[in-house]
Every structure is written in structure tokens, then in C-alpha cells.
Amino acid sequence: MMIFFTDNDIDRLIEDDVPAGDMTTALLDIAGKRGSISLFARNEMIVCCTEEAVHLYKKVGLEVDFSVASGTKLQPGDKLLEAKGEASAIHLIWRTGTAMIEFASGIADRTRQLVESARKENPSVAVAGTRKHPPFVKKMALKALMAGGGVPHRTGLSDTILIFREHLLFTGGYEKLPEVISGIKEKMKERKIVVEAHTMEEALNAAKSGAHAVQLDKMPPEIFTECAGKCRAINQDICMIAAGSVNNTNVALYAKAGADVLVTSWMYFAPPADIKVEIIHLNHT
């Protein structure tokens, strides 16, 4: 999946930081002077959103000489982006471009940690990011998730069928699941149906009712193993999902417990990556 950032997305980034011009740069009268900006990793990291930074740099007229792709693993001191051009343009996007890469790279790096820990126990397990990312950063969060080796659990309410207990309050509860699932399959034949369960009983009910996947919420790993085994005895192809409080302390336990998918929002609240910025005054063109 490619996350597409529009020209308007990039314009908004600039407008948010520079709603009425750069007062400091204007007062220092440095317009017309030339410089370069280079970004370096201070620590080992998975970089993300360099493509959007390049788009941002070019928007203000900078010439990009070098950039690495999102998903690249960098070591301390590695260069990730370099551009040159008018000094006022460099100062216009310096902080915005750097902050975007730092924020996204933090998420990507944390995602990679989860993926590597989980796949040591289960090489085929998927780490999926929820849609509970901070508001207004969906595109950046999803791109960072995938750069780190994760996948979107749901990009929004429009792309998946996920039945929660709260839905079932209005349809007769788990007891009516067979009729509910049958009705959905009749209306939407090509889609898979996921049912969230909080107990063994609810999970087995979902499996017997024809759910393609059961999402177990906050079920301890040792109980998850037993529950997954019983659900697979009903349907050997059923997908078992672990969700709720999955993080770096227990992701390997859930992978070992037999989860096919690990659903979490833990990666979205990573500290930003640390990037060194070097700006140089170029005396000549």
C-alpha cells in the first residue's frame, strides 16, 4: 500500500508554520544568500517520510542532492537528506521537515522493534497498527507503520467488517451472532468478518457462528493459547487476533501463544527519532 500525500498536504505543513512569512529571516535580510542543509541520524533508526520532506524542500525551491528511502535502516552518523538553495527557503522548512521525519521515524523504529520481537517466536505473525493514532496524522502514522514492517489493521471504518460487543447490544448479543453473520455474508460476499470477543465463551460463539476471524481483547497469553486451539478445532482456517495492551513487554508472548495477528497502537506514541541538522553558508553557487 502506498500512502499518497497531496500538494495540499505539503502546503498545509508550510502554512501551519509560516502563516504570514518568516519574520526573523526577513529582518536579518538573508534572502538571496545560498546555503545547504543536511540531515544525519544521531542514533540507529528506521527512517520515514523522507519522500515528503523532499516534496516539502522542492516546494520552496530547494535542489535536493541526496535522500534515502523510507524504511531504510540507518546507523549513527548516516546522512538521510541533503539539499541546497536560497537561505531563506532553508530556514522556511528546516524545522517542519525535520520534525516530520523525526516523528514518523520514531513510529517506524518502534514498529520494527515489535516486528522483530514477535517474529523471533512466530515468523509468520503480522503486527498491525490500529486506527487509534493521534488525530490529523493518519497518513504519516500509516506510512511510518509500514516503513517499520507493520501493516494497517484498519485504515478506517470503511474498509473492514469488525463487530464489537457494542454493536451487538443493538442486534441481540452474541446469541444472535449466527443470524447477524449470515446476513452480512449474504450482503457482502467477498469480505471477511471479524468479531471481537472478551471471553472464551464469546470467542467460541463467534467461531461457531461463521466468523472468519476472532479478535481477543486483553486476553492473557496463556488463556489465548487455549482459546485459539478451541477456535481452530471448530474452523482450522480461522484467524486469531490478539488485541488490547499489546506492547514491547508482551508482543513475543502473544506471538508464541499462537496469534496470527497482533493489533496495537503502541508504536504511534513513540518518542521522535533524533536527527542532527547541519546548515552551511555557501559563498558560491
From TrEMBL:
Quinolinate phosphoribosyl transferase N-terminal domain span: 22-105
EC class of the enzyme, as a word: transferase
A GO BP annotation: quinolinate catabolic process
Domain Quinolinate phosphoribosyl transferase C-terminal: 107-277
Catalytic activity: nicotinate beta-D-ribonucleotide + CO2 + diphosphate = quinolinate + 5-phospho-alpha-D-ribose 1-diphosphate + 2 H(+)
Pfam families: QRPTase_C (PF01729), QRPTase_N (PF02749)
Annotated function: Involved in the catabolism of quinolinic acid (QA).
UniProt-listed PANTHER family: NICOTINATE-NUCLEOTIDE PYROPHOSPHORYLASE [CARBOXYLATING], PYROPHOSPHORYLASE MODD-RELATED
Family: Belongs to the NadC/ModD family.
Protein name, as recorded: Nicotinate-nucleotide pyrophosphorylase [carboxylating]
